[in-house]
Amino acid sequence: MTFERPVFLLSLLVLAAGVAFVWWLLRRRRMRYAVRFTNLEVLAAVAGGSAWRRFVPPVLFIASLAALCVAFARPHVDRMVAKERAVVILVIDTSRSMQARDVKPTRLGAAQEALRTFVDRAPQRLRIGLVIFAGEAQVATPPTADHGLVRQSIDEIGEFQGFGGTAIGDALDAAVTLAQQALAEGQQTIALRTAPEQDTKGLASILFLSDGAQTRGTLLPEEGAAKAKEANIPVYTVALGTPEGVIRGGFGFGGPGNQAPSPGYGSSEIIPVPPDPETLRGIAETTGGRFTEARTAQTLERTYEKLGSSLGREPGKSEVTFVFLAAAGGLLLLAGVLSALWSPRLP
After folding, report:
1. Which domains does the chain have, with CATH numbers?
2. pLDDT tens profile 259-280
């Protein structure tokens, strides 16, 4: 903990000296009473009340003054604080393989719940964008600090399910472009426009979730990762699903999201849809992000919860003066209440 005005901490010494002086006066007073009244226990019994009760309100009052002294010093603590102009682009695979039930209730359902957790844990000022993809990528929500709008788009992801494969490279490219546009919009003032280029480094991140290998698209995953690396945007990847994941066939015009189209498979056909962790691990390593393999909804939830508490933040100091002011007020109120309840009353 650090203090903006540490000189005010000297008031604690003044408070301690005052308490010591009052204690000395009380002891002298007690000694005089001892001369006049040789049996102090009888005197205390006549006065009524437990001995320890007499000390509680004064102690609480002194503690409230101490908290107030610390508050005047403007205390700050080290914690993760929100970055100014930070942007996070959420990317989620909506291909048909996301309907596999090896992750409960389905891969897509678990992913949606994890995305909601991320939005709930993210800083309020963080701009969040959403890109969904299957055979092609599309922007569901441009980067915005309106997290309610992002949650609405997450709820509506099921309406955008695709059946035309998995275009990982194109989705990465779309996310990088979206992040760069958002950062450029934040540099429209003269002061920001003349700032050095490295000032935007670390302001954007991509959180990428998929359950399959690349089967469609113009760019390869490696090419999309190279674009993210060139833009100094780390990609945090999540491979969702288990090797035992399957879906049932039922469409004659295309295959599942992580397989190449295979016309004519029947409705009773069981199609394996294992995830492709190696591709996603390579993307994370190339861009300086982090890879996670999520085989359960609980693992996925914890991953997004942790990232929601870290992405868009940086180490910094946060003032906690209000905590000590609230403590001082609460202790003072409690001291007054206990003093009124426990004080001796005339019959």
Report:
1. 2-78+318-342 (no CATH), 84-311 (3.40.50.410)
2. 444 444 445 688 999 999 999 9
